[in-house]
Amino acid sequence: QVQLVESGGGLVQPGGSLRLSCAASGFTFGSYAMSWYRQAPGKERELVAAISSFGINTNYADSVKGRFTISRDNAKNTVYLQMNSLKPTDTHVYYCNAQRTREIWGQGTQVTVSS
User: What span, in angstroms and rounded, lies between the C-alpha atoms of 114 and 78?
Assistant: First the structure.
């Protein structure tokens, strides 16, 4: 079964940190570029960060540069998003995405930044 399962979301205070994980199964994880997207209610889904299949290349949305870090462990079929210095504007549902010849989405995990 092809799937991506996100975890690690939750409620955190401004300035805090969270680490999201996305576990992949059912496909050749190491052959896919991986990304994290986020979406707020009534808004379009936006790209947060992406990493190439071997983890050599990464790119980030301007709004998270210097605060978020994407990484992957191909031996564990897992991609991560380390989020530091969180702001209330980072409150979104965060989705994991795999892309090569097809696109695969996870179910999303809620991140809420609030005092």
Answer: 28
